[in-house]
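Q: I have 240 residues here and want to know how they pack in 3D. Can you give me a structure?
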Amino acid sequence: MALVAALVLGMLAVSAIAKDDRTAERHAMVDQIQQMALSLGNAALRSKLDPRVLAALRSVPRHAFVPAEVARLAYANQPLPIGFGQTISQPFIVALMSDLLQLKASDRVLEIGTGSGYQAAVLSLLAHEVYSIEIVAPLGASAASTLARLGYANVTVRIGDGYEGWEARAPFDAIMVTAAASHVPPALIAQLKPGGRLVIPVGGMPQELMLVVKSADGTTTSTRIVPVLFVPLVRKGAPN
């Protein structure tokens, strides 16, 4: 019986590898991310990223969230085009922004800018619920389909203007904005719980990645983290 069980487990392991033969690439990607974190030397950052964040990046198949024509580059530490003038973020930035939120397994998170769904998948392994808003309808629909197909059942995607947040689902323990704004949208501050953390790229080119922490009395403190390059935050009714 033990031999049969061992054979079955071995067959399952082989089957899993056959379905996803890029595990080694993910591990190499995470190794590179760790080295980058150590080299930043920013007093506002922890030199070692949260092991839960790194485990999430080792788990999520980034190649499933990018177009077929760039899938070979899925585990390169760089942003990639996903259509409609949008990109999937550099893996290091995904790790950094996820780490800055300091998520607990019980947290509810709002993401502005679903894109391909990759960042939402990472967040889904760190938090209890993820709510994600995408203004580009085809991207949002595709991301929702990919997330459902891969089993990330605690992510809810809707099409809409992320600048206004998601009031019906507020308040949130953490908010992440994956596109650059000229300022922090007031609605997002209002929908953030006291003690909550918001990460957002702000400014022109390059932008500054900002960490905003909301105090118990409703006031906020902001910390500049690193220069970044994000696509602009698209608003409803804005010219293309």
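Q: Anything worth noting?
A: Residues 1-18 have pLDDT under 50 and may be disordered. Strands lie at 80-83, 86-88, 108-112, 129-134, 155-159, 172-177, 192-202, 207-214, 220-228.
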